[in-house]
Amino acid sequence: MTAFQRAVDLGYRYLETDVHATADGVVLAFHDKTLDRVTDRRGRLAELPYREVANARIGGREPIPRLEDLLSAWPDVRINVDVKDMPAIGPLVKTIRRAKATGRLCVASFSEKRVAAVREELGPNLCTSLGTSGVLALRLASYGGWLVRLARRGIPCAQVPPAVRGYPVVTRRFVRTAHELGMQVHAWVVNDPAEISRLLDLGVDGIMTDRLEALRDLLVARGAWHGSHESPPPGGRT
Fold it and tell me: How many domains does the structure of the chain reveal?
């Protein structure tokens, strides 16, 4: 929660997190399937009750936040949710419904099956991003033109890395094709300011980054910062 609070304090109103669910259906804002790597406890989240997971501390200090904690703490913030595991789908749907947060979330996943399952439950008004095959189709369309009439299926964005194993994914043509189809392009995870600038020059609509100040300062310098609070001068800090 400290990390999310820091982003909100800097003026961001879009957050991104991965989600898993515990054995008893509590949805966690957490990347790993297990506690082992970054907490002082061990075990697979999907096999543990929340009462045990609640005792784990990230880096020995911070508890693992629930998605519900994020939704209630900042009601004006929108959240991008990457569903990391099939067992999280049912609890995620229940959490979104309980919080009445369908309009505040964008659901993503490498697995199109996971995204489709959540979308089927919550309806077409839920924002979702393209899965792997959809991104591939968009990439092929941007080169060959044979999928120019790619069906949008109501999916408003493609969330992709700038490149995969040295092969460029986000190109000017890729961005242009997405925009022609009415879709935004969000690039992840980009921490180098020069690469952020390059992607912004290509016309991407969103950047996922760990370098919060760097991204904000670049957007301020471009006159494109739309976060809350008074914008700091380029290079400034709050």
Answer: 2
